[in-house]
Amino acid sequence: MHLEGSLEPSLLFSLASRNGITLPSPESDPAFASPDALLDRYARFTSLDDFLHYYFIGMSVLVHVEDFEALAWEYFVRAHADGVVHAEVSFDPQAHTARGIKYAIVRDGTLKACQRAEREFGMSTNLILCFLRHLPVSQAAVTFGDARNDLTSGRLSGIGLDSSERGFPPGAWQAIYDQAKSSKIRRTAHAGEEGPVEYIREALEKLDIERIDHGIRLPEDADLVKVVAQRKIMVTLCPLSNVRLQCVKGVAELPIQRFLDEGVPFSINSDDPAYFSGYILDNYCAVQEAFSLTLADWENIANASILGSWCGESRKSVMLSKLKEVLEDHR
User: Which of 101, 246, 275, 331 is spaced 20 to 30 A from 47 at the CA atom?
Assistant: First the structure.
């Protein structure tokens, strides 16, 4: 889940006003006539790049520590209402440093919200720094340098790779990922969302990722499916996002049943919920409606989600115990 992707139109317009940010005029883009008009436009994305156009306009309103804290806190409140007890969330520092916002401002505001979520909700959080594919690798290297102490100290939990996928094969970031691996920094990457299944293999072989984000093209390579299952590499599926971005026509087209049948561990996620009208519970419900899964299936998915998370073993034990209690209540 991308924190910048939880920027609801109401907060976007509020921060734009408070920070003196000029949004596109309604004459140039009717979507910016009001929060409701913008939300309506979000329902008609034609592709990943169409979504990213609005995604990057939206984050331009984030300027101060308080803005990043408000963004993340609003998400955690919604996630808590949906029953989330552990959240692993991504953020895109390059999108902010490229417009003059210091990395520390982004980090500090976001971490404040993470700490508040733990205090007020008992929610554990992991923060993952993502590099933007459409920007030069050299800029990602600078960001990695800025964040390296945070990554090795545990303030941040790992690195990822996101933004436009097609035309940006993951191997270009190999040097950064090699440095991360040598420093025992956790690694994931978007692969096989809109891009080909070859990007998944390349991310595994060249970046040595420990998780696959999206990965819906994985079934196109039967041998790779076996590798992922054998190595227990978790795939972080984002069902409603895939539908909204027209990667698939419906949730039922996603490889959920095949992953269950072939032992591919996966989790259900919300990706950019403010833009896709689907927070975590909405995604769970959409999967159930499409596949009519059994309690045993959901036990499998929940176990994989916990075991594939990047929190500590003690926290995993707590969540596994809680899962056992919930399952017993429904048997």
Answer: 101
Give the tokens for residue 256: 């959920």
Pick the closest to residue 45 from 53, 37, 35 (CA basis).
53
- Told to judge if 328 belongs to the known catalytic residues of this protein, a careful annotator would answer no
Q: How confident is the model at residue 110 (pLDDT cuts 50, 70, 90)?
A: very high
Residue 232, both tokens: 């227990």
> Residue 165 carries which DSSP code?
-
Residue 228 in tokens: 């992922």
CA angle 244, 247, 251 (to 5 degrees): 65
Q: State how far the alpha carbon of 10 is from the alpha carbons of 55, 136, 177, 270, in Å.
A: 14, 32, 37, 19
What tokens does 84 get?
């989330």
Q: 8, 58, 17: which is closest to 36 by C-alpha? A: 8
Give the type of residue at 252: A
Q: Which long-range contacts (CB under 8 A, 24 or more apart) does 195-202 make?
A: 195/165, 195/166, 195/168, 195/169, 196/220, 197/221, 197/224, 198/169, 199/165, 199/169, 199/170, 200/224, 202/169, 202/170, 202/171
- Chain segment 27-38, per-residue pLDDT in tens: 999 999 999 999
* 198, pLDDT greater than 90: yes
Question: Which residue in the list 69, 165, 193, 210 is annotated as catalytic?
Answer: 193
Q: Per DSSP, which regions of the chain are E strands?
A: 86-91, 124-132, 158-162, 186-191, 211-214, 234-237, 266-268
- Residue 165 · residue 48 · CB < 8 Å: yes
